[in-house]
Amino acid sequence: MEPQIIKNKPLSKDESKALLELIEMSKIIISKATNASSNKMKDKEWVRIAEQFNATATSCRRTPQQLRLKWENLKKNARKRCTKIRMNNINTGGGVGKRKLQGDGSKSARDRAIAEYYTFKKLCLESKLENKKLKLENEKLLLEIENFKK
């Protein structure tokens, strides 16, 4: 006989964020290697993550299998959303579509990471531009000083 599966309530947004933070700290889980030794290490890592998660979680305890399934579902939903966005861009030739994609009201970890990446990239480009402006102004001042000395 199979053991009875007890269904718990879904993870809250805070619990999902906590799970993502634990997964992001683990290089083993994120690695794409799937040989026997790495799979054993991943299983041990999921047990460790479940212990840490349950130590901080306020609601019911979660098994490593439940947390792993949640992680797989998060990745699958992110891929689906990314595909929808890509297909929408193909249909519109890269422009703005006639209809917006309806989200589920919450941003996935991938969406947040992409948004943070582009925000950071924008800041870097702005700082590089500012540095170039300052260098040009500095060179301009040096030329003026040289002209003034002559």
Structural write-up:
With 150 residues, the protein is mainly α. Helices cover 72% and strands 0% of the residues. The protein contains 5 helices and no strands. It has helices spanning 13-25, 27-30, 36-56, 64-92, 109-149. It starts with 12 loop residues before the first helix and ends with a helix. 7% of the residues are buried.
Point out poorly predicted stretches: 101-105
How many strand segments?
0
Shape designation: elongated
**Strand fraction band?**
under 5%
Described by strand count, sense and barrel closure, the largest sheet is:
none
Short description:
This protein has 150 residues and is mostly helical.
Topology:
Blueprint: H1 13-25, H2 27-30, H3 36-56, H4 64-92, H5 109-149
Helix pairs in contact: 3-4
Based on the model shown, name its key terms:
150 residues; 72% helix; mainly alpha; single chain
